[in-house]
Structures are given as structure tokens and as C-alpha cells.
């Protein structure tokens, strides 16, 4: 029940922010989500968090062509932080985790902002394709899941749930995209949804692997029934860059 109540609270906020809010309000919501997710990530990985917040916000705000330069400068700054560590080996690990987190979280949300600038419906799709898929996976996996998908990383996930996520995600895509984006065919919508859903499921497992390696169950406790913001957004962080890449390079 907590899971449903939390979703019912968050979905209207997400829809308003993406589809109807002025750009500055949308950016503010994205920045808050990215900061909260990065905070949870930094706690889990024990990375150098302060630099990550500054670099991340700059990446979100900068023009697209300057993003790579900011990532490079952030990497160089992270390497310099190893000089302050009592144990150089540990300092290098924390610096590497910092750079990965900046790219993983703020880089993904940068792709989300670029999708929004192309057409808010593209970002809404990138968010919804895995939210819908996750819902299908949760209920199908809970009731019919028999074959473990990745027991060493996430014991609760099943192949049945993964297939359900794919089916629900593709169904959402072939309905939503042709209705909201002019010129998108059913085949194109299905293929984009397929790629986005597979990416999202990979993102879910990748975040589970990070938590498993750090010995934690959830990334946080701010979202009842879901854990933390990173737990709720892990699939989205993989889906947004994949959708943006398909639109800018492949299509």
C-alpha cells in the first residue's frame, strides 16, 4: 500500500513538472532529484560528495556542447582530491566513484533536459516507459515469478517479471509516442520502447549491484515503499541517455 500511495503522490508532480511547468521550475525539480539521488549514491559509495554537487549542477545548466569539458575538469579535480586522502588507494577509489556518480546521475539528467528541450513528450516517455514496465514487473513477478533473473544481485527479480516489464513498456510506447510525437510510426515507437525498457532494467540491476557491493538494501528511506530516490529512478537514469542517443544519432 505504501508503494501505491507514494506513486500516486509522485506521478502528478512528475507530469506537471515535465509537461506544464515553466522551464525554471522544471529545471529546479530535475536539480533536486539529481542532488538527492547523488547524495544517496555518495553515501553508499563513500565518494567525495561536495565536488559532485557543484560539478553536477554545472553540467545540468551548461550548454550541451560544454558538458564533456565539465566532465573532464571534474575528473581532473577528483584526481587531485586523492592527494588529501590518508590512504592513497582509498582516495583513488573514492575519486573514481565520484566521477562515475557525476556521469551516471547528472549526465543522465542532462540527457533528460535535452529530451525535454526537444519535446517534453520525449522525456515523459523516457520516464513512463520504465515506470509502467516496473509496475507490470512487480505484480507479475510477485504472483508468477519462478525463474530468478540475477539472484546474486537482486534475488527478488525474475525472468517472468522482466518479460512483463518489456511487454508493458512496449505497449506504453506504441500507444503514447504515435499519439504525442508527430511522425513516429508504430514500429519506431516499439523499437524505441524496447531499447529504453531494456536499458532501464539494466539500470535497475546495476544500481542493485552497487548496493549489494556496499552491503545496503535501499539507497535511502525518503520514499515509503520504494526506498530512496535512486531506487526509484535507477531505471530512468539508464533510459534517458539511450532514448536521447537513438533520437540524435540513429533516427
Structural description of this entry:
This protein is mainly alpha-helical. The chain has one domain. The chain is 79% helix and 3% strand. It is built from 9 helices and 2 strands. It has helices at residues 2-19, 23-45, 49-61, 67-81, 88-118, 120-144, 159-180, 186-214, 229-250; strands at residues 148-150, 154-158. The chain has a two-stranded antiparallel ribbon with strand order 1-2. Strand 1 and strand 2 (154-158) form a beta hairpin. Helix 2 runs antiparallel to helix 5, helix 3 (49-61) runs parallel beside helix 5 and helix 6 (120-144) crosses helix 8. The longest helix has 31 residues, at 88-118. The radius of gyration is 18 Å and the shape is globular.
Kindly name the structural category: mainly alpha
Q: Rg, please?
A: 18 Å
The overall number of domains is: 1
Report the span from N to C terminus.
41 Å
Detail the poorly predicted runs. none
Global geometry? globular
In this structure, how is the largest beta sheet organized? 2 strands, antiparallel
Residue share in helix: over 70%
Largest sheet, spatial ordering of strands:
1-2
Number of helices: 9
Count of distinct strands: 2
Order of helices and strands: HHHHHHEEHHH
Amount of beta strand = under 5%
Mean model confidence by pLDDT: 88
